[in-house]
Amino acid sequence: MPALVSVLLLAASAAYGPELEGFEYAFPVQRFDLESQHQKLHMSYLDVRPGTANGRTSSSFTARTSAPARGKRPSARSPAPGIG
Predict the structure, then answer these.
(1) How deeply is 66 buried, as exposed, middle or buried, from its count of CB atoms within 10 A (0-12, 13-18, 19+)?
(2) What integer is the mean pLDDT of 16-22?
(3) Which one is predicted more confidently, 81 or 53?
(4) How many structural domains are present in the chain?
(5) Measured between alpha carbons, how far is 73 from 52 in angstroms, rounded to an integer?
(6) Is 28 part of a structural domain of the chain?
(7) 37-57, pLDDT tens digit by residue?
């Protein structure tokens, strides 16, 4: 029981910033700076390389801010958030 209490206290004390600062990732976080519509922006990403390359590439992107930026709510029928 004391171990459970320690884990719960540790979880309750974890504080993350708006960009998940403070979260420990398994790989280094990279940053890509850009400008769009006269705004300076940045995107954080993980560049995870395989131990042995097999000639294939996998990418995963999330853009949860795209729908609010266009003033629309994602449709329940949309294939992805922000499209619809």
Answers:
(1) middle
(2) 81
(3) 53
(4) 1
(5) 42
(6) yes
(7) 999 999 888 888 888 988 888
Distance set, CA 52 to CA 46, 47, 60 (Å): 18, 15, 20
Query: Is residue 41, in this structure, part of any structural domain at all?
Result: yes
Q: Tokens for 48?
A: 């995870």
82 within some domain: no
Q: What is the pTM of this model?
A: 0.49
Interacting residues of 67 by C-beta distance below 8 A, sequence separation 6+: 73, 74, 81, 82, 84
Q: Give the domain range for residue 31.
A: 21-48
Distance CA(23)–CA(1), nearest Å, equals 26
Domain assignment present for residue 73? The answer is no
Other residues' Cβ atoms within 10 Å of the Cβ of residue 67: 18
Cα separation of 28 and 48, whole Å? 9
